[in-house]
Amino acid sequence: MQLHNCENMSAFIRKMAIDGYVINFDIPELDELISLLRKTSNNINQIAKKVNSTDKIYGNEIKEIQYSQSKLWEKINQIVLLITELKT
Fold first, then answer.
1. Global pTM?
2. Domain ranges of the chain
């Protein structure tokens, strides 16, 4: 349990009973992806609030969302490649 950083004994026992093993993935790209998702969500929410209050949106705001989305897709593709390599 300690090797897998699991603090919930019953969850660990259930996992072992069902699968017979526990796999921990340490993928820093996944942490970065989660961070990018949070930042993008915050940006979109701020822009949505602004648009709802002023009925205006600016080109630079749209470009910012597009840039964030492209970064997210880059990270997602990196993670998919990593996972694909693990399967082979």
1. 0.54
2. 26-87
